[in-house]
Amino acid sequence: MREPPAGLRRLTPEGDVPVQLVRWKDCAPEKYRALYKRVGGPWLWWSRLVKNDEELAEILNDSRVQLYALVDRARVEVGILELDFRVEGECEIVFFGLIPGATGKGLGKWLMRKALQMAWAPGVSRVWLHSCTTDDPRAVPFYMARGFVPFARYVEVYRDPRLCGLYPEDAAPQIALVR
């Protein structure tokens, strides 16, 4: 995105939203990893799991990184949002997602609206994110419907995180296990 979507700043009635966005400051790596795995496990998110506590804490405690948990009325974390402003003039939506069972209820639309409102801070001229072929197949169409435009495609080769012990071998059964 090179400009905010039309109507992004317009106030819209929230009604009875069953969730709240909670900023996690000084988040302990183990707390972060637990939510990261709950949200990303079905899609084999792995990049933060291979970082040691020091490396992860350095990212999470950077003042230019904003980490949020989406919590339901019972105060259970049902989603994650991570915004990275470390590149001047840009905001990367590094991680965005909901736990299984929280999708298909409009919470993703609500969360993305909040994400974009925060991402388009003064001085930001580009908001971007990345997806991959193991993500939910609805992800890219969802992002495009919110105003994102595909701009690049990369091939990334990595060892299956189930074979590295990051996830059990029966995780993400919809994704072929390549030995």
Structure description:
The protein is of the alpha+beta class. The protein has one domain (19-145): Aminopeptidase (3-Layer(aba) Sandwich), CATH 3.40.630. Helices cover 22% and strands 19% of the residues. It contains 4 helices and 5 strands; from the N terminus they run βααβββαβα. Strands 1-2-3-4-5 form a 5-stranded mixed sheet, sandwiched between helices. Strand 3 (77-84) and strand 4 form a beta hairpin.
CATH superfamily: Gcn5-related N-acetyltransferase (GNAT)
Summed up, the domain count is 1
Please, what is the average pLDDT?
94
Strand tally is 5
Q: How helical, in percent, are the residues?
A: 10-25%
Strand order of the largest sheet: 1-2-3-4-5
Question: Could you describe the largest sheet, including whether it forms a barrel?
Answer: 5 strands, mixed
Strand content: 15-25%
What's the SSE pattern?
EHHEEEHEH
Structural class: alpha+beta
The CATH class designation is Alpha Beta
CATH fold label: Aminopeptidase
- Work out the radius of gyration: 16 Å
